Amino acid sequence: MPDVQAADLHRLARELLCATGTGAAAAHVIADSLVNANLAGHDSHGVLRLPAYLEGARQGHVIPGAVPELVSVNGATAIVDAEQGWGQPAMWLATRAAIDRAREHGLGAAVVHNCYHIGRVAPYVESIASEGMIGQAMANAAPAVAPFGGRARVMGTNPMAWAVPRAAGAPPICLDIATAGIAEGKLRVARSRGFPVPAGNVVDRDGRPTTEPGDFYAGGALLAFGGHKGSGFSLLAQFIGRGLAQMDPSGYDGPRGVNGPFILAIDIARFTDLDQFRAEVEAQCEAVTCCLPAEGVEAVLLPGQPELAMRSIREREGVPIPDSTWQELQALADEHGVTLPNERHAG
Fold it and tell me: In angstroms, rounded to a whole number, what is the distance separating the alpha carbons of residues 92 and 29?
């Protein structure tokens, strides 16, 4: 399994995306999304996605050269049209619009129409928190998850994320999760490494529990986290994605790179003093991290702390890429005349 420096992965992603007709600015944004996911330890949303992204462009599922447009601003709301293009540039435009609306109205919300995969959601809400606001986001996705009590794909993995600002100089606290018990991208990681997945997350095409990730791709389904609880949160993302973002993914056959995103910015200063809010956040964080750890647990962590620790390691040592993913990237680099980065194999 090679270890590759983040800057080299970023260059590879940019050049492969540009080779498909993606503009340089958009390619940079998408590469940021993928490589930052790898650095955070979420390889499910990292460069592992590049082969599927390029195949989506080849098959016409996404228009690489499309430029997103802010098509509507109405009070505290905004609508962005991705024009069937890449999701990340469109979602960043929506995020900026939500922040601007919140500055003016106290609350700001935006949706994206005609949107491809937006990548990991955390960076969008973290950027809202960095502006001294609370960020919340969700999206529906192509069918992959069985509703509570069912065994067939009906709902997407449907991510939800939030972020709040901490004291000045500290990174925001952020939670970014799939409403499925395991994200579909993490199945790809497990399959690429030949690993099983934890029990209780996947059923095969006949509805039988399985730990083999390939059973999902053979017609099985994911399960929501927490039974009816996760299924209910996923359903909310379905309603908002279909009803507000106008993304009805029910006709897609299996996992596809589509999302119907919604993002909300809440201007804390409209409700209370921002410094006082930050102080309350710090007090709550201290209460959590000072909690006596459960047996076998080294320390109680806040959401986002494992990602920050992993980023520190991978920025120094490089990003480990599964051999199967590296072979796919080699093939794409050869096809498009792109130079593959130097690699270092872990000892």
Answer: 9
